[in-house]
Amino acid sequence: MVKKTKRKKKTHVPFRMNMMFFVVFLLFSILIFRLGIVQIVQGEDYQRKIERTEDVTVNASVPRGKIFDRNGQIVVDNVPQNAITYTRKKGATQEEMLETAEKLAKLIDKETDQVTERDKKDYWLIKNEEKAKKKITDKEWEKANENEISSKELYQMQLDRITEKDLKTLTKQDLEVLAIYREFTSGYAMTPQVVKNKNVSEEEYAVVSENLASLPGVNTTTDWDRAYAYDNTLKTVLGNISSSREGLPKEMVDFYLSRDYSRNDRVGKSYIEYQYEEVLRGQKTKVKNVTDKSGNILDSEVVREGQRGNDLVLTIDMDLQLAVEKIIEEELGQAKRQGGHPLLDRIFVTVMDPNTGEILTLAGKQFVVKDGKAEMRDFALGNLTTSYTMGSVVKGATVLTGYMTGAIHPGEYLVDEPLKFAGSGGKTKSSWFNRGGAMGISDQYALMRSSNVYMFKTAMKIGKAKYRPNGPLRISPETLPTMRRYFSQFGLGVRTGIDLPNEQVGFQGELTQPGLALDFAIGQFDTYTPLQLAQYVSTIANGGYRMKPHIVKEIRQPIAETGKIGPVVEEVEPQVLNRLDATPSEIKHVQEGFYAVMHGSQGTAKKYFAGVDYNPAGKTGTAEGLYDGPKREDYLKRGEQLPMTWNVNLVGYAPYDNPEVAFAVVVPWAYQHSANSAPLNNNVGRKVLDKYFELKAQRAKEETPDVVIEKDIRSRDSVEDEEKSTDSDNNEENTEEE
Question: Which GO terms describe its biological process (predicted)?
Fold first, then answer.
């Protein structure tokens, strides 16, 4: 039998399978090779690109809008100045900033006046680590290690134990470094902080510019500062702005931050600069900074170009303003040199257009002696922030209140005679020109000669009181509230609505006895501001419309061309706050009485305005009362009685038949013994009106079609009618001498 042998089968791998393996191997090899290149050769570049992940947008400050007067004269400007800034990168360490501050301190001089004791202590601890550690005992360190004392408490203990001797080891150079470091840390990361922008010399600017490569975050640039064309004019009204060092006011930080401000932004702090902050602030430059993870700026891109703020055109006529201030200074200076006016220290003048409410002049000067040297300070703000008893200038309101309440009628005659009431201690209430006897006078005669008794009897008629010699004064308790309510229609005792903050409303006296309601009728009880007087006389001048006074005429777009003003953005329109309840004929009757004051044969101001061709009308006023000025406390400390003083005032308008200008002159505490001599109110008022019409005539000759600002556009305004409050002037007696 034949035996069969089994043959083993040979395994064969198909060719295509081998090819597949080869291709896979080749692909993996290429992938590994590529990864090697990415990881080893290009790894750092790709890592850097991965880290470029942050875009930080910051705002750069721009100059504020300019301020011009109504004729296009610059009042407040911006001036460029060299500046050195620092932009702190995100994650910048204390050591890095100190190192940069030390380098910069060698290149510039830095004032150290803002460095506080706390700043010095913090810096001392940084510079003296070993000594700082020794301020803490071993036992205290042990407690700190066991978390019985927090790091914050430990640091405070070190601060408390730094002595004056320790702080004296800080050199002048150390303090300069500290002052610079303080600026470095005062703001947000990525936001430029001003290190120095005052008195940066050309040498400092150049040497810092040359060394920027070794001063990370430091830059040289151009900053701006506010420049005032007139040093001692309207400064109290224009207000001021915070410095870059001050930044946002603490009490308003949240308000401004919510409106895209930065903490170190300069903002208006007072009056016009504050009131019109939103107009003047401008549109900031927006810059997008591309940074790496370390906070280093890799690239910057301007997202939005900035633009300085809009410009303001004031209603103020600077030529008239300066002329009126000169008149005040001359009259006040002469009075002080004469020596008979020891308590006189200020004069106010408000000039306005009675038809639009535009304030043409807001002038005030205060005589101050400092370190033995006399000076005249700007006190224009006092026209709306201080108040005084005004005397007979308000008698026009008293007569019109009599008409409006039906107590008297135009042309009514009343008997002017000394009034005696029970309980008055024998004192009489009389007119200055009639100390005895009786005479029938009309309302216009009463205004012309400034009769007190006519006003007393008008108030008594309003209060349903009948006069009996030596009898009691039984007058309605509603008399004073009623008269105040009507006086408010003229702007007396309420806010005028001017577009400035902190306006005062005056002081309302407390009615402790019936006779005080009579004193109110002659302006010897409540107090009013000079601005209120100007609004009051304007209301009479224009036929009974109380216009809202305003100091800004227009808002204009900024343009680059020097000395030019851009197109109008907004024109402030006149606004009527209210109209008197009086009829046109009643208002006309009082206007004629005011005309008689300056033109009548016995007018109290006739001799001061005789011969003028601008046909004025107005009312004089003298208020007698105890002194309540700045030296009041000196009298009280010495135990002396306050002296009796006289405020002399004047209101008026011109021309009588077509009023274009109204004014108020207020001279507090002008005299101590008598108001008869050299009335400052009339001297000032005459010169102010003379200057107004002189300027008008001069401009009519010089007028050309190329004027920068249209002289004939009348700006106007809108408001709300509110109430006022301010100074007091407790007066006694009712003597009115003019």
Answer: cell wall organization; peptidoglycan biosynthetic process; regulation of cell shape
